[in-house]
C-alpha cells in the first residue's frame, strides 16, 4: 500500500486515484472528417500524505506533502479535417471553471523554504490548433 514499514508512514509522491470517462462522436466515415468529445476527469482526495525519515533516525519524521481534496472537471474537444493537409483542433479544459488542487503540484518560493500553501490550478483553458502538412 505504499508504506515505509520502518516508520509506518505513507511513502511520498503517490497520486490519488484518477479516472476519466467520456463520450466521443465522429463522422460516419470512421472519424476521418470530424469528431467531438465530452470528457469528465474524476480525482479522489489524497489524505495519505507522504513522510520522510530525518537523517538516520527511524523515529524522527517529517511530513512532506499536504492532503488535497478530490475534484471533478469537464472538458470538450473537437477536430475538423478541412482537407488531407489542413486540420483544425479546438477545446476547452475545466469547462465549468472549477477550483481544484492537483496533489503533486509543487510551488516553491524563491527563498527555498517549504511553506504549507496551496495554489489552485488555472481556471478555464481554451485551446485552438491549426496544422498544415505540406
Describe this structure in words.
There is one protein chain. The protein is an all-beta fold and 134 residues long. It has one domain (3-132). Helices cover 0% and strands 42% of the residues. It has no helices and nine strands. The strands form three sheets. A five-stranded antiparallel β-sheet has the order 3-4-7-8-9, with no helix packed on it. It has a two-stranded antiparallel sheet with strand order 1-2. Strand 3 (18-26) and strand 4 (34-43) form a beta hairpin. The mean pLDDT is 86.
Task: Write down the overall geometry.
Answer: elongated
- Note the run of SSEs as H and E: EEEEEEEEE
Poorly predicted ranges: none
Radius of gyration: 21 Å
Terminal residue distance: 51 Å
Average pLDDT metric: 86
What share of residues are in beta strands?
35-45%
Strand order within the widest beta sheet = 3-4-7-8-9
Number of strands: 9
Instruction: Please count the helical segments.
Output: 0
Determine the structural class based on helices, strands and strand pairing.
Answer: mainly beta
Helix content: under 10%
**Overall tally of domains:** 1
Q: Largest sheet, if any?
A: 5 strands, antiparallel
